[in-house]
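Q: How would the structure tokens look for this protein?
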Amino acid sequence: MPTALSYLVGQPLAWVPTATFKDRYDLIGPGNAPVATLDMSNWSSKANAQVPEGTLFLHKEGWTGLKVAVYSVEGGPLIANYQRKWTGTSGQLSLADGRQFKWGKANFWGTQKAWTDPTGKTAYVQLSTSSAGGFSRKSSVVVFPPAAEVPELSLLLVLGLYNIIVDRRNAAAAASRR
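A: Here is the predicted structure in token form.
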């Protein structure tokens, strides 16, 4: 069964910042139309996303900050859990029905990250960031054909950008402590 965003397979997409000093982004699709939004402008680990299926609320849980819970709305039912590895560069998304997706580097430098099946063989979504010192906040997105059958495609797109933003914030915090 095709998903709400299955028409994005093979289309040029990009997460584009919509505010200069805040983490607000639109996923720009065909015809330069926004397809989804992510707002993490509160400078915490909480985020709200608008996707075709409705609203998603994401935030870190636990004292380590390695677990991200995804709800349909703030205070709503839990949709999924994302468990980051201690290195923060990869992790595992677990859905309520037991299905899992793996997040990790798709190239040596880590400028490309992807959602794959747990074995890493089937790619669903890839996000690419600038390798020019991380100056650009824009991320290009590729949706691969197998993603058309993933009902949680919107979640993969939003959580991928969320992970990139968290990684950038963690890197900035680490650099400021030197």
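The radius of gyration is 15 Å.

Residues 9 and 145 are 6 Å apart (CA to CA).

Upvote if useful.
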